[in-house]
Amino acid sequence: MSAPQNLRVVLASRPVGRPCPDDFRFEEAPIPEPADGQVLLRVQYLSLDPYMRWRISAAKSYAPPIEIGDVIVGGTVARVEVSRHPDWAEGDVVLSAAGWQQYALSDGSDLRRLDPTIAAPSTALGVLGMPGFTAYAGLRNIGQPKPGETVVVAAASGAVGSVVGQIARIQGARVVGIAGGPEKCAFVKDELGFDAVVDHQAPDFAQQLAQACPDGIDVYFENVSGHVWDAVLPLLNNFARVPVCGLIANYNDDPAAASGPDRLPATMREILAKSITLRGFIQHEFVDAQQDDFLREAAQWIKTGQLRWREDIVDGLEQAPQAFIGLLDGKNFGKLVVRLDR
Questions:
Q1: Which residue range or ranges hold the Enoyl reductase (ER) domain (predicted)?
Q2: CA dist 94 to 8, 34, 259, Å?
Q3: Quick count: other Cβ atoms within 10 Å of Cβ 18?
Q4: Is residue 301 part of a domain?
Q5: Domains in the chain: how many in total?
Q6: Which of 23, 89, 249, 306 has the fewest CB atoms nearer than 10 Å to its CB?
């Protein structure tokens, strides 16, 4: 009988436009042996997130691109299988960055021990993880909603947008979500408790959004861009704040074949005329100062029922490439997670 192997997914080629399954390659390698000061992790859950599209591109970004042949990056929840580290014990469940593979080594510096009494371990990849903290940091540092203001959230049923809207409501704002399709819109309104929701797939989307925001928009949390931004821009109030978290409508664009409307002149005109603050951010710039605050507050909101979430779980690492492609097409419903180990 052959020895167990480590199944992993590596970058086979850089996508041009929309990724395809051939851009990813499955490999088997020996399960690594931990040295002194290391632990062997067995991945239980893998997070799929839109930022990964940038990492498999060669375009200049906030982090270096994944090289051809490298394991695809990704946040993971893992179990410590073997420990040769004094701070970690076999059986510990941790948040890690093992990427798209079944096993990985760590020196412990990138691990966070998880408390299963707060919520299921998979939530460390969503509502209690990077997406949740992204929502928290973007609102706290850039959006800064005040009681009674109108906050609009794009991709409101997703991992980040759903948390943005709920935190804004906790802070006393009126929250309008934007989602795609009746099922997602119903979830945002009925389960998450947004004050209003608008379907961006509706032919009269811009008119519906204007009706949902009779007093204009004070904070717009940008996750999408494209035609959603076109509808939001004229509704922004004086001194509106726009945290720019994601641009998923553009992630598959081929820079060499760029087409469509030039939104820059209209955007710059509104920024100037209305004294709008528009600021991009990456959550890690706030982690050291604010992650502990987030984890403490989010755990309390979960305990009181003020913070809810939805997970979209697919089973098997073999499903990761197709699930990721679907994520970029908006096919997921909630935080997309791959379950490797039941």
A1: 17-338
A2: 19, 17, 44
A3: 14
A4: no
A5: 2
A6: 89
167-184 residues labelled b (16+ CB within 10 A) or e (exposed): bbbbbebbbbbbbbeeeb
DSSP class of residue 141 equals I
d(CA 130, CA 112): 12
Check: CB of residue 26 under 8 Å from CB of residue 103. no
Residues 6+ apart with CB under 8 A from 186: none
Same domain, 25 and 67: yes
Please tell me the predicted confidence (pLDDT) of residue 1: 45
Q: Would the pTM of this model clear 0.85, i.e. be above it?
A: yes
What is the rounded distance in angstroms from the CA atom of residue 49 to the CA atom of residue 127? Answer: 13
For residue 96, is it within any domain?
yes
- HSE at residue 99, side-chain half, CA atoms within 13 A, is 17
What is the per-residue pLDDT for 225? 85
Pair (120, 190) in one structural domain? no
Residue 190 placed within a domain:
yes
The residue whose two tokens read 């804004």 is: 168
> Given this model, what pLDDT does residue 253 score?
58
In order, the DSSP letters of 257-277 are: G--S---HHHHHHHHHHHT-E
Q: For residues 243 and 175, is the Cβ–Cβ distance under 8 A?
A: no
CATH number at residue 13: 3.90.180.10
In the chain, which stretches have pLDDT less than 50? 1
Q: Are residues 146 and 231 in the same domain?
A: yes
Confidence (pLDDT) at 133: 97
Quick one: tokens of 57? 């591109």
CATH number of the domain encompassing residue 179: 3.40.50.720
